Amino acid sequence: MVKTSLNQTSPGRQFLYFVVIFAGVFVVFNVLGILAIGLFYGFGLVMDIARLNFSDPGSIPALYLLQIVTTTIPIFVAPVLFAAWVMRQPQEYLKTSWGIPPVLFVVAFFIMLISSPLIELLSNINQQLTLPQSLKGVENWMKQSEESAKQVTAAILNMHTVWDCVKNVFLVGFLTAVAEEFLFRGGMQTILVKLTKNEHTAIWVTAAIFSAFHMEFYGFLPRMLLGALFGYFVAYSGSIWPAVWGHFLNNSTAVVATYLYQNKRIKLNPDDQHVFTWWQYVFSLIIIIILLLVYKKVAGGRENAKLNGEELG
Predict the structure, then answer these.
(1) Contacts of the segment 82-86: beta carbons below 8 A, 24+ positions apart
(2) Closest listed residue to residue 295, CA positions, set 225, 237, 212, 228
(3) What is the pLDDT of residues 219-246, one digit of tens each?
(4) Is the Cβ–Cβ distance between 46 and 58 less than 8 Å?
(5) 194 CB-contact burial (10 Å; exposed 0-12 / middle 13-18 / buried 19+)
(6) Within 10 A of 282 (CB to CB), how many other CB atoms are there?
(7) Alpha-carbon distance 221 to 217, whole Å?
(8) Where do the H-state alpha helices sit in 115-156?
(9) Please, are residues 190 and 92 in contact by the beta-carbon 8 Å criterion?
(10) Which residues contact 113 (CB under 8 A, 6 or more apart)?
(11) Segment 31-46 mean pLDDT
(12) pLDDT, tens digit (0-9, with 9 covering 90-100), for 2-31
């Protein structure tokens, strides 16, 4: 009886539940994270981190702990609670099935590989956007938020050893990919598909929210594109794992490239946004569209075969 009534909950109410659960979990783990840092490292260090002062040797380990407890864990826990405890349909909302063709991971790999020029183009366009004079205060706040995020990222990605790189590939690459995909492409996109009754709308709205969530406004457009790609990976395959894979590839590649550049193993600065040419931008867009169609066909072929098998049975 309870399960039936939950299944009949309107998409709008589901979205409200989802947001409330995330907000509650986020607040609880932020309080726990600050208390943990205060107890282990001292509350003075908490204030230093809040002021973006990382001169204390304990600030980086504390920052890692803070990131995991206040961000990664609640982002993962909230959709799991919603799907398994509130809706009691974890597979429908989290899409954790592994029953997909392995070749989808190969296609996703090449999509992520070929997306670099298009990401650069959108980043350059994004950097040139300015708000009207009447919104100068908002623009200044956006720039300050961007700079703060960059300082935190730079502190975490300050790597001197291979172990530092491996640690960040696990934290920034793997854990972040799993948590964010469960939240956005798992729970949120599923609800928005039900709410909008349009898969494409749900994918792009989710991608926009995903990008805005990072509070890095001058990277909004490229991150929204990435979110949309991850969204199509899930929508076409019915599984969260190709999106997790793509997200992991994007994040871990940035980590490894940063490590190699910092330690003078490569000369190309990963932050350089003027690497590709216009024809490479166009080529990137065309190939991504083709590969997405291939991805959809492979995933759809498997689904059709499954349905035909059930009909024959």
Answers:
(1) 82/17, 82/18, 82/21, 82/22, 82/187, 83/186, 83/187, 86/6, 86/17, 86/21
(2) 237
(3) 999 999 999 999 999 999 999 999 999 9
(4) no
(5) middle
(6) 13
(7) 8
(8) 116-127, 136-156
(9) yes
(10) none
(11) 91
(12) 444 455 789 999 999 999 999 999 999 999
Structure token digits, residue 240: 């969260």
Amino acid identity for residue 3 in this structure: K
Tokens at residue 67, please? 């990131």
The amino acid at 17: Y
Hey, what amino acid is at 43? Answer: F
What pLDDT was estimated at residue 62? 93
Length of the chain: 313
Q: What number is the average pLDDT over the span 163-184?
A: 97
Could you report the per-residue pLDDT of 240-286, keeping only the tens digit for each? 999 999 999 999 999 999 999 999 999 988 888 788 999 999 999 99
* Residue 56 backbone dihedrals phi, psi, to 5 degrees: -70, 135
Tell me 135's DSSP state.
Answer: G
